[in-house]
Recover the amino acids of this structure.
């Protein structure tokens, strides 16, 4: 069946909205709103629908929305506190610099000129860079604060939309109904991709924790900052592709604290985990949206070229939404 004029208009509006989300750097707000919407949508209706009185349903929906927003804010606070309190990330960076300094003699000759000669040299380089790019660093701090504000606003908007969807009884007009259908497909794509990525990150973190906390100690190898590296593996693993690069680089560098052989063993283990995660992505993420792994990688490559890191994060969700629309229209 050919799409109606209203459906075509809804497609155009949805495409423009998704483009503007990336162009105006509003992706954190969108993801935060979708997260709260999905969590409230999965919990509140189970109780609200059992109540016949409209006001009682509203109270239940608002309560669950406030509970979910509070839980998300608490989780963000704990995550920031874990890495910020006691300078865990700073300690990790300093330890990595010390490891590189102490490992210069065992590293390949071609690599030595490209790493700092000492921790003091690294600190001096950082101080000089900060002095030369003070304006850019200040802008980064401003952008971080703005991003946090966007996330908080997105949480509130997501909660409000979820409450309205839970208790709403007024039938929408044609265009509003078509746009609601587009939003529902986007939310479904978000649920499938993000929850699958969380599962993948948990599996990846579990294997990494076994390797760092169980396998290496069996061979008498005790790496520093093991707990921080495990936590970093989970948080970074929520980002497709690039998250693995971040956590793997840290683990390999810290493994140099013991010996180059341990670093090579860690690299080999992480390559195996990466290949296993590639298979998981194809099975878990690709299975949810009927897409092959190369399709997701191609989408991430194109989105990264167009929008940078935000494009990498948004690509699986937007591609899953596009695939859902094409399937609903009978085109794929």
């Amino acid at each position: 069946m050919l799409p109606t004029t209203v459906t075509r208009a809804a497609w155009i509006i949805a495409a423009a909205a998704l483009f503007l989300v990336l162009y105006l750097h509003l992706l954190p707000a969108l993801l935060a709103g979708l997260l709260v919407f999905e969590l409230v949508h999965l919990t509140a209706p189970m109780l609200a629908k059992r109540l016949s009185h409209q006001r009682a349903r509203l109270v239940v929906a608002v309560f669950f929305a406030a509970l979910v927003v509070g839980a998300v804010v608490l989780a963000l606070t704990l995550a920031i506190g874990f890495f910020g309190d006691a300078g865990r990330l700073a300690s990790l960076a300093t330890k990595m610099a010390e490891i590189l300094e102490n490992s210069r003699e065992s590293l390949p000759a071609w690599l030595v000129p490209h790493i700092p000669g000492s921790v003091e040299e690294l600190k001096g380089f950082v101080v000089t860079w900060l002095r030369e790019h003070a304006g850019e660093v200040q802008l980064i701090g401003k952008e971080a604060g703005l991003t946090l504000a966007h996330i908080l606003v997105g949480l509130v908007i997501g909660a409000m939309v979820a409450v309205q969807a839970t208790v709403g009884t007024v039938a929408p007009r044609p265009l509003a109904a078509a746009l609601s259908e587009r939003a529902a497909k986007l939310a479904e794509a978000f649920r499938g991709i993000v929850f699958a990525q969380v599962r993948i990150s948990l599996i990846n973190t579990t294997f990494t924790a076994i390797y760092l906390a169980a396998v290496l100690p069996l061979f008498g190898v005790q790496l520093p900052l093991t707990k921080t590296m495990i936590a970093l593996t989970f948080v970074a693993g929520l980002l497709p592709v690039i998250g693995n690069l971040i956590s793997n680089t840290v683990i390999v560098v810290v493994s140099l604290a013991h010996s180059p052989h341990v670093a090579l063993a860690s690299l080999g283990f992480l390559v195996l985990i990466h290949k296993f995660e590639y298979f998981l992505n194809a099975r878990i993420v690709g299975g949810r949206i009927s897409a092959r792994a190369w399709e997701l990688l191609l989408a991430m490559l194109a989105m990264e070229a167009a929008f940078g890191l935000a494009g990498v994060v948004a690509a699986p969700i937007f591609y899953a939404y596009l695939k859902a629309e094409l399937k609903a229209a009978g085109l794929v």
Remarks:
- The chain has one domain: 5-328.
- Residues 174-218 form the longest helix (45 residues).
